[in-house]
Recover the amino acids of this structure.
């Protein structure tokens, strides 16, 4: 079942749409943040986007083996491909080569499941570093012995979720695994339990700050835009208030569905998560067709096909920007 249309946002909201969509903003110069150079309380890591779908960065296992991992806000565990994994691609890690004291925590094979990947392996403790001088000596991680869904250039996944129960299933309790950023802060390696990204086009420079963001790297005149996240939540979740297509003035809110739980849909706002480990924008089937129709109408696209939940257009199609 699809909604017939996305309803136009009321005028009172349209008058303040920038704040309505993105939260109140303040200039970087007036935010009270102090300027600092790299290495002063935070760690900045270069990221790359080799295949145009997701950003990967370094993780040094055992203090000796550098692997490329996805920095994933939609999961918790650090998972790394084992040297004995028969169907893993690219670089792998052998705990026997560690410069620390690698220890196998469990001899029972267990699973870690993601939206597009399924992993089998064992839990370990070992020295895990983001640079040669920024390490945790006994961090718990998951060593992959068999897998489906991970391919080059990915050698593993670094989970960056929050240490909370799921917003949509609080009765299940907090099931968060060991979190690397949180642990770096606890042992005094970074100055705050925070991280931030600067994502650019695949051919351009991107990076991640662990700890307080390096404000000296902000573009001149840039604004810090604040979005209210749901708290508590395992994910970086928020209530998405609507969509604008082409320009912010062409704005829509979500149509009502009375049978959706309040945790998912409330006051025309839809529960959404920010997932840096995903390669796609995913939207509920309830509004999917309406969004595609509006997007293509605004973009002047008349040729497209739909296959297994994905919409394909000719490569020369120019799609209008989307704002959430």
């Amino acid at each position: 079942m699809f909604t017939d249309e996305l309803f136009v946002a009321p005028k009172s909201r349209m008058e303040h749409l920038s704040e309505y969509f993105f939260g109140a903003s303040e200039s970087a110069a007036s935010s009270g943040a102090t300027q600092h150079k790299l290495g002063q309380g935070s760690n900045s890591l270069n990221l790359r986007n080799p295949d145009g779908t997701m950003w990967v960065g370094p993780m040094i296992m055992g203090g000796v083996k550098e692997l490329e991992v996805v920095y994933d806000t939609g999961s918790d565990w650090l998972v790394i491909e084992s040297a004995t994994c028969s169907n893993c691609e690219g670089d792998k890690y052998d705990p026997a080569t560690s410069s620390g004291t690698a220890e196998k925590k469990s001899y029972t094979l267990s699973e870690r499941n993601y939206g597009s990947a399924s992993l089998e392996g064992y839990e370990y403790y070992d020295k895990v570093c983001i640079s040669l001088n920024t390490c945790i000596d006994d961090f718990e991680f998951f060593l992959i012995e068999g897998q489906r869904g991970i391919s080059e250039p990915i050698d593993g996944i670094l989970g960056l979720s929050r240490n909370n129960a799921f917003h949509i299933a609080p009765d299940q309790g907090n099931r968060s695994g060991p979190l690397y950023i949180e642990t770096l802060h606890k042992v005094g390696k970074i100055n705050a339990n925070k991280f931030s990204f600067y994502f650019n086009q695949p051919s351009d420079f991107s990076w991640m700050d662990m700890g307080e963001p390096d404000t000296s790297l902000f573009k001149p005149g840039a604004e810090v835009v604040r979005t209210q996240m749901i708290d508590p939540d395992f994910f970086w979740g928020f209530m998405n208030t609507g969509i604008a297509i082409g320009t912010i003035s062409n704005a829509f809110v979500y149509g009502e569905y009375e049978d959706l739980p309040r945790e998912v849909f409330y006051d025309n706002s839809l529960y959404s998560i920010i997932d840096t480990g995903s390669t796609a924008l995913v939207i509920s089937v309830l509004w999917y067709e309406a969004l595609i129709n509006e997007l293509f109408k605004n973009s002047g696209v008349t040729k497209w096909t739909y296959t297994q939940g994905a919409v394909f257009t000719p490569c020369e199609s120019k799609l209008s920007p989307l704002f959430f």
Observations:
- The chain has two domains: 7-24+226-323, 43-217.
- The chain has a mean pLDDT of 84.
- The longest strand covers residues 134-148.
- The CA atoms of residues 250 and 284 lie 21 Å apart.
